[in-house]
Amino acid sequence: MQRNASWTKWWELLRILTARNLKIRYKGSVLGFFWSLLTPALTILMYAVFAHILKFNKGQPHYLQFLVSGIIVWGFTVGSLNDSLFSIAGNANLVKKVYFPRAILPLTTALASGVNFLLTFVPLMLYLALTGTLAWGPGLLWLLPAFAFHLALCAGIACLVGTLNVFFRDTQHIVGIGQLAWFFLTPVFYFPQMQLEAAGFLGAWRGLVFLNPMTGVLALYRRGLMGAAEQPLVPPAFAADVPAWWIGVSCAMCLAVLALGVAALRRGDRSFGDAL
Amino acid sequence: MSDDPATEIRDDEWAIDVAHVTKRFRLQDASRSLKTAAIDLLRRRAPQTFTALDDVSLRVKHGETVGIVGANGAGKSTLLSIIAGTLRATSGTARTRGTVSSLLELGAGFHPDLTGRENVMLYGAIMGIPRETMRRRFDEVVDFAGLEEFIDQPVRFYSSGMYVRLGFSVAVQVDPDVLLVDEVLAVGDADFQRKCLAKMDEFRGRGKSMLLISHDLHTVRRIADRVAYLARGRMLGVGDPLLVSERYMKDSVLEADAALAKHEWGTGEAKFTRAAHLDPATGKEVEGTFECTDDRPAFRLHWHADRRLDDPVVGFSIADTVSGRNVFGSNTQIAGFRIGPIEKGDGSIELRIDASNLQAGEYLLSFSMHSGDHKTNYHRLEHGLQLRVKNRKWFDGLVSLPVQWSK
Questions:
Q1: Contact call for residues B229 and B238 (beta carbons, < 8 A)
Q2: Is CATH 2.60.40.10 the right assignment for the domain spanning B5-258?
Q3: Does any CB of chain B come closer than 8 Å to the CB of residue A8?
Q4: Is residue B101 within a helix (H) or strand (E), and if so which, with residue range?
Q5: Domain range for residue A47?
Q6: Which end of chain A has fewer CB atoms < 10 Å from its terminal CB, N or C?
Q7: What is this model's ipTM?
């Protein structure tokens, strides 16, 4: 193998491995990739039905739409996170037998989760459109940076977690409990202003909640899907302390995580062969 | 035998250049955890290491085939993995020129859930071969592996033989400049082995370079231009296939001598007490390895019987130390020599073998004594004696058969 070969050559491999990853996901199931559409559709239905029965959206306009958009976006993050745990350790047979840039393996799981996520977006947007909460118009373009930074974040996490799990098998347990904590730290099921209120002890620095990259990413998605009136980037009540540019902190964090992940992977690459 | 190959091959000639490679593995628990890592760090405990390769250098020229021999654990596979890039050297460098295809530890790195077809395409992508090219070569891959019916089955349903066949096939068909092969011939059937050898010959013929590990010294001698000998992580020598492999053989026989050499079983009603060569000059008994200068080496076997035995039969077999395979075996019954009833107590028998048609090399002799109806095995003495046959005439294979040519 030419180790100095250009990266263009590895694109093909990345493509094939991503396709492989998606293929294996639904191998042997009758409905195949339709599950990617069916699962979120049924998830939305389930939330709608139980929200109706339990009336937990009482008094909050469009809470259900807010909630399911959060759930589906969060689904990409944890889906990619959990898949990437064994992206390297689970491919020992490949890693031990042929050389190729190891980054391809975690990137593949992030990409495959990303493709899957784009599919889940179809029923989500359909649902928002049917309930009249989808903000048609150029505002939808916010979804592009949202997905780009989200993907960068997931790729970074995948590299980091995939590498760590080769050397420390405790990683999977830490990730399991860590993602629950992260879930509660992210305004998935509660409103962003509640998060900022809770961060009141930070005073003028309460914008630091955007250090959680998912806070900003989620705000970008919701801004794109439901419009500025329903979902401004930053809750107007806190506009004085937290101007909209704080979203940039989350975006920067996404890139920082990506850089950290890549660095960890490069460091780990020296001894993957030994550890597997 | 030249011990410093690096000086022989110029900088612009090599396809593989291994320079002073040392590889240490950390010995660690099966499951390493954050806890143990933290403890190690706190106690500043240096992790225990195992040196798999110790300052190994080797150059393989363009178009050259080099075989690597050595006992299990000598570092052969580690060396190949470092050249292939799947392991990193602790120190030193390993470089290759051109595309490298490797077949390490039986198999090309297939995914069990994917079909043979998908795995072939995946391997092609890993090797950086455009999809179109790979499609064109696909039929050849399948044809060579002989897997037409199974190519669309997930490889986890493959037998180990099928797995290796597909692995070798795809590794060769991607047409690399350098091919690294680890023990591919050990698994395939005879037919596939022949195909592999033919393919490797063709590969050599096209001026490609090859580095292969094999325990089958006959194959190594046949296919390699030079042979490298690794023992306990050190490169003991690189050079002429015959000389180097012979040296390895000699060493391994000496080791085998100490370790596995003799074992025995049987009812013990009669037991061999001593097996010895007879010195051709003096007729005296000699124990240990015997160098056969005479074409008809003689042996004397002593036994002790616990009771009278009516019709004992004494047999022997000669095994090739390289392959472990029996070359020849016979007994007194087959030869029509009746020992007759033996009384309780000691006795002996002499045996003379015409070894003039035996290939030069090391052999192990085993002896047995059993009842005339073959129902009771009194004693079997495995590898009781060693015989070293000196090179006298040149032929290929283990035995020289009478040949007549005509026109």
A1: yes
A2: no
A3: no
A4: strand B100-103
A5: 32-275
A6: C
A7: 0.78
Residue B3 has pLDDT above 50, yes or no: no
Residue B32 has its nearest CB partner, among A3, A17, A168, at A168
Topology at the third CATH level for domain B263-389: Coagulation Factor XIII; Chain A, domain 1 (2.70.50)
The domain spans of chain B are 5-258, 263-389
- pTM exceeding the 0.80 threshold for the entire prediction: no
Within a domain: residue A148? yes
Yes or no, beta carbons of B85 and A3 under 8 Å apart: yes
Judged by CB atoms closer than 8 Å, whether chains meet at B104 and A273 is answered as no
What does chain A come to in residues?
Answer: 276
Residue given tokens 């390699």 in the structure block: B224
Residues of chain A with confidence (pLDDT) below 70: 1-7, 57-59
CA dist list (Å): A1 to A14, A53, B83, B123: 16, 61, 10, 11
Residue A6 lies in a domain: no
Contacts with A, B 51-70, CB within 8 Å? none
Q: What is the mean pLDDT of chain A?
A: 88
Name which of A24, A100, A170 is nearest B113 (Cβ-Cβ). Answer: A24
Q: Is the pLDDT of residue B391 over 70?
A: no
Q: Say yes or no for a CB contact (<8 Å) between B121 and A274.
A: no
Are A20 and B111 in contact (CB < 8 Å)?
Answer: yes
Residue closest to B64 by CA, chosen among B2, B16, B10: B16
A21 inside domain: no
Structure tokens at A270: 């020296």
